[in-house]
Amino acid sequence: MRKLIFLILLIAFLPSVSAATIFFDGFETGTLPSTGWNLSSTGTKNWTNSTTNPFQGAWHAQAQQPGTIEPAAVMEHNVSTTGYQNINFSYARRLIALDIADEFQVEWFNGTGWTILEQTGGAAANDASYLNKSFLLSIAANNNADFAIKFECTAGATSEFCRVDNVNISGDKISDSTPPVVRLLNPANNTFTNNQLAFFSANISDDVALANATLHVWNSSSLVGTNFTALSGLNSIVNRSFALPRDGTYLWNYLAYDSSG
Questions:
Q1: Could you tell me if 43 and 66 are in contact, meaning their C-beta atoms sit under 8 angstroms apart?
Q2: Is pTM, for the whole model, over 0.85?
Q3: Could you report the per-residue pLDDT of 39-65, keeping only the tens digit for each?
Q4: Residue 247: how many CB atoms within 10 A of its CB?
Q5: CA neighbours within 13 Å on the CB side: how many for 74?
Q6: 131-144 burial string, b = 16+ CB within 10 Å, else e?
Q7: What are φ and ψ of residue 141, in 5° steps?
Q8: For residues 200 and 125, is the Cβ–Cβ distance under 8 A?
Q9: Whose CB among 34, 68, 93, 124 lies 3.0–4.6 Å from 156's, allowing a Cys bridge?
């Protein structure tokens, strides 16, 4: 008698994790620098909004004849990547009639120094259409509150342009299993007789990213009060003062959450 053996193949499909958008600017507000960009210039002109030939939408950022002293026009933005890793920096750019004396340059900041991602100095650039640029950054960009990006344009003729659109910073949300650390600072475990105004203070820290903390104060029978505080970064001192309703014994604690799962 023949025995038939059936093999069942089980395939597990894991949900894909797509990168989250940390920052995006298509310059559709129509105004610079109101969207958080810091502008500086060594010439008479700087980056501005324009409706002439955007990559997408109605507006883009443009520097036209900003000057010949490098860098003539600078557009810089701080973008905190706290809580994210595998940071990707992308943008669409179109350079018009730049000669070898002109320059378009893109950089990112890791908290201590700038890294150049694209530089056209010494080479002419005249794009027939927008070019999409994308860069996967080093681990120094991960979970970095001081992360920043910068666009520079140096060009001396009225026919020379630098155009930028759809600036995007994305990354993967960091998930960890370590909760925040809460260290109660004040008041100490003691008896106080001076007044009924209590001052509560705690130091809260996390390896990845803080989200919020809530103070709870109890007397012998019920909850007296709470206070919610939104947090960010890796370390924070939270303070709260309020009058206790009467003399007695009180218990207090801070409940803290991080933003990384």
A1: yes
A2: no
A3: 999 988 999 999 999 999 999 999 999
A4: 9
A5: 14
A6: eeeebebeebbbbb
A7: -85, -15
A8: no
A9: 68
